[in-house]
Amino acid sequence: MNRSLYFLFLLTLASLAAAPAWAGNPDRQGEAGAPELLMNPWARSAGLHTMTTSMISGVEAMRLNVAGLARITKTEVVFGHTIYLRGTDISINSLGLSQKIGENSALGISLMSLDFGEIRRTTTLQPEGTGSTFSPRYFNLGVGFSHIFENKVSVGTLVRVVSQGIDDATASAVCLDAGVQYVTGERENFKFGISLRNVGGRMQFRGEGLSQDLQIPAFDNVHGVTVSQRPTAFELQSVLNIGMSYDFYVNSLNRLTFVGNYTSNAFSEDQIGGGIEYSFRELVMLRGGYKLDFGEVAQSNANAEPLYSGLAMGATLNLSVSKKENAPKIALDYAYRTTRIYDGTHSLSVRINL
Predict the structure, then answer these.
(1) Against a cut of 0.85, is the pTM above it?
(2) Which stretch of DSSP H or E encloses residue 13?
C-alpha cells in the first residue's frame, strides 16, 4: 500500500513539474496534427465535457485516463456514434471492449474512425470538379491495460496507432497514454486522477500524391520530370489532465457528484472546468459541465475563440435485462456540447455490461 501511495505522490509531483513546460501556448497552435486524438466519441464522459479524469471507468477510460479501465465488473462493450459539428456532415464511429483479467486487472481495445462523407474532387485545371469524389480516412486503434492495487490505486498504460490518409497519400504514428487513479473514503467518495496522453513520434505524409509530373524546357527539347515534395512532419496533440471528484450520497437512492478538472495542452490554451452529475438509483443519471480556456477572456478576435463554447450536458438510462442480482445491463448515453459555430456536437453510446 505504501509503495503505491509513494508512486502516486511521485507521479503527481512529476505532472505538476511538467505543467509549466506544457502550459498552453497560443503561439504554437496549429503546429500539431491528428486533432482526432482530442475528440471524445463516448457520450457518458462527453456529457461532462471530458473532465472525468478521476472517475472514468471501463471502455471510455481508454480515451481519457486508461487507469480506469480495470474498474469494471467483468466485461463491457460500448458502441458510439457522434454527429460532429452538426451541419458539416462529419460523424465519428467508435467501438470498444474491456475484459477483466483476474480480480484486479483488465485489458481493453478501442477503435475510432471519422466519416467525412464523399468530397468532390477538384484540380487546378478543373476547379469545378472532375466528376469523381473521395473520402479521407482517419482511424486509430488503442490497446490498453490497467491494474488496481489493494489500496485502491489503479494505474494503466495504452498504445495507440494513429492513421490518416487519402487514396494516394498516408501518414501514421504510434503514441502512448499513461494514467493513475486514487479512490478513498468510507464509500469511495473521493477520487483523484492524472493522465498523460498522446505522447509519441511525429507523423509525416508519404505517397504518390506528393509527386508531380512537370515539363521542363531545355535548349534541345522539353523534358518530363517527376518532382517529389517533402512535407514537414508534425507533432501529435499531447495533453495532460489532472482531475478530482467527490460523491455526496443524499440517501440510499440519490447521489450527487461534483467534478473538477485541469487540462494542460501542449499546442493550445490550457483549460479548467467543473461539472455535476445526479444519479437516481444508478438507473437514471443527469449531468452537465462547463469548461473554460484560460485565454478565452483575453481574446479580441471572435474567430480565435475556442470551438466549444463551454457548456456540455448529458443523460444516461441504465437498465438490467432481468431481475437477477448480477444480470447483464444495457445503458443508453447521450451528450450534447455547444459550439461557437454550427449546431453543436451530439453523441450517443450503447453500453453493455456482462
Answers:
(1) yes
(2) helix 2-22
Q: C-alpha cell of 191?
A: 477520487
What totals of helices (H) and strands (E) does the chain contain, helices first?
2, 18
Q: 12 pLDDT exceeds 70?
A: no
Please state, in angstroms and as integers, the Cα–Cα distance from residue 75 to each residue in 101, 102, 319, 330, following that order: 10, 12, 16, 12
H/E element holding 22?
A: helix 2-22
How many other C-beta atoms are found inside a 10 Å radius of the C-beta of residue 251? 6
pLDDT by residue (tens digit) across 56-79?
999 999 999 999 999 999 999 999
- What is the C-alpha separation between 82 and 97, in angstroms, rounded? 18
CA distances (Å), origin 107, targets 6, 11, 217? 25, 22, 61
At 111, list the grid cell. Answer: 477503435
For 149-250, strand residue ranges (E) read: 153-166, 169-184, 190-200, 211-217, 222-228, 239-249
CB neighbour class for 270 (10 Å; exposed up to 12, middle 13-18, buried from 19): buried
Residues 209-226: what's their mean pLDDT?
A: 75
CA 72 to the chain's CA centroid: 20
Task: Go through 14-45 and write b for each residue having 16 or more CB atoms within 10 A of its CB, e for each that does not.
Answer: ebeeeeeebebeeeeeeebbbebbbbbbbbbb
**What does the pLDDT read at residue 350?**
97
Q: Are 179 and 199 in contact (CB under 8 A)?
A: no
CA 141, 175, 42, 328 torsion-angle sign: positive
